[in-house]
Fold this sequence. Notes:
The complex is a heterodimer of chains A (390) and B (269).
Chain A: E1 2-5, H1 11-24, E2 32-35, H2 41-52, E3 56-59, E4 62-65, E5 77-78, E6 103-104, H3 118-121, H4 126-135, H5 154-182, H6 190-214, H7 226-236, H8 241-266, H9 270-300, H10 304-319, H11 327-338, H12 343-371, H13 375-384
Parallel strand pairs in A: 1-2
Antiparallel strand pairs in A: 2-4, 3-4, 5-6
Helix pairs in contact in A: 4-6, 4-9, 5-6, 5-7, 5-8, 5-11, 6-9, 8-9, 8-10, 8-12, 11-12, 12-13
Chain B: E1 4-9, H1 14-28, E2 33-38, H2 41-49, E3 55-58, H3 60-72, E4 77-83, E5 91-96, E6 111-113, H4 120-132, E7 141-143, H5 157-167, E8 173-177, H6 178-186, E9 195-200, E10 208-212, H7 217-228, H8 235-244, E11 249-251, H9 258-267
Helix pairs in contact in B: 1-8, 2-3, 4-9
The complex binds fe (ii) ion (2 copies).
Amino acid sequence: MKTLDLGPLSLARGGHLALRRALSSLADGESLRLSGAEPELLVHARGLARRWSCPFREAGADAILGPPTAARWAGAERAGHAGPQGAVDHPPAHWGLAARGAAVEAGSPAFHFALDQRDEVWSDDAGRLYLQAAAAQWDPATIVDWSLPVELPAEVEDAVVQVMTFLIENETAALVVPARFCAQVHPHFREVMQVLAIQAADEARHIEVFTRRALLRRPAPGLSTAGGQASLQTLVDEPDFAMASFLLSVLGEGSFLSLLRFLDQHAPDPITATICRLSATDEARHVAFGLSHLERHAAHDATLLDRLAAAVEARHGALQHTAGLNEEVFDALVLVAAGGWSPAELQRGWDAVVALQTEMHAGRQVRLRRLGFSEEEATRLSGLHTRNFM
Amino acid sequence: MRPFVLGAVAYDPKVVTIWDGFKLFFEERGLPFDYVLFHNYERQVEAHFAGMIDVAWNSPLAWVHTERAAPSRGRIARAVVMRDSDQDLTSVVVVRTEDPARVPADLAGRRLGVGAADSPQAAIIPQWSLAQAGLDLSRTTIVRHDVLLGKHGDHVGGERVAAQALLRGEVDAACMIDSNLLALHADGTLPAGSVRVLHTTAPYDHCNFTVLDGVDEATLARFNILLLGMSWDDPTVRRLMDLEGLKAWRVGRLSGYASLQAACTLLGV
Ligand SMILES: [Fe+2]
Ligand SMILES: [Fe+2]
């Protein structure tokens, strides 16, 4: 018979851990003699034995216990393996919120995560991109000196405010879309869930800094157009993760990367330049994740590229009767890049915005080619992308 | 086929979850089943004799009441199935650690805090057991903590209130089930080292499924077989068994009710 002497330790003050450990080491039919100096040893041992369904009898001042008759962990299964290569292709619904690699008790409730196929969401880059994002979080309060004097010509300040207003509603779409899919990804794909969560957090910061800049010298933001919102609505309403990711991250945020770098380069004040530059570094990660999981998805699903192409065409069709990039935003970008009203400044601003659009088109084609589209198809699809940039 | 109707007392909202779960369990296995909830055990015992229910999920006191009333009504009561956790409970009488009392007789002239007056585990059996061990109950002030009277102490409330009264010095001793002493330590109601056990009762049994003569024996047999066949290792029924607080069902036995019967006689309940 095995023995356990608890000495002065009470079963009501942590001693139950030692008892459970000793009982779990018993083979069937084996028993344990429990002794101790604590006067309530038998009272507590009897209560615990009943709770754990263990045979129990008294033997003088000691208790004799047997192993539990019911084994909670019989039938438990491992939810894949903990490491980055440990995700399975199709995690079952009842693995639920369990840590990857945990032993999941049989009978755990089923959770309905719509994105539960590895091929739909996985990227081997996700873990690395998440760590990179976590390390690159910047503090909007301290990253620029918000008390710097910003004294621009009134119309140039108005143009900056209009561009910020445009950015804010685009960033909001870029927050809502990954946030929604984040809640649909099976948590077994932990790194994907984390990447989407921190992407949404990035967008929250972008919204904050663009809002602060908009309100720095003006009491209210600028104009929000019906056409701009209609374009973004097609993103927010897209129910398919691959389609939404393609339209938002590859095409939209890809184009935004060029726009934010343009604003960094041409901004009339250092605050605007800094916040656009920092946001662009975040956007580069968003684009990288979109590209990497879609590239993997396309390699496993021969129909994906055709479906992505169809999504661009459908969106183009839905938006062709809207005005495209609104005049207010276009003109504001020209004026921001011009920085003043002289003919030379205006012409420079105009040229810069035209160059920006060319650059966006070229960048989209490079990314489309990386996903596996032919050169011709990449050119055609990039041309169909919304004139609203995002 | 007429459903087999069970009676149970609604001592907690989870009772609905439990018996809805059992209804599904029985019906999926071909036994039409229904249940009726009662506010208190006295009403349930009466309804049982009146034929409203086929089987009663009875507290030990409701069992004793049914068993006692049966002969005068020309009826025979049987306890058919019980939980593993209904067998071999003990109750303890605790005092504050620094209290001078060393044996039950030392509580004479003092205040004994009990749970609800109709709680076998927190009032009836401990009083009888203390008397057996030498306490003169007529010289002891019994302070009742009547949380949910009629539920026979199924709710831990009365035991917790008695324990709190003990710590505040409003009573000199408090009664509870052995496992509730652990639970009240664990939830912080009784800080470690604040109380010690003065007296422990002999083991006794708790609830059972009670039937009366005239029950449809074939249906009852099916009911018993399905219950006894439930395995806690089967994840589809584990949740139900966890809710009802058991790991396995046991065939009913009557050996564990002697102290409660004697206590009821002594206390006139
Ligand atoms: Fe952003
Ligand atoms: Fe983004």
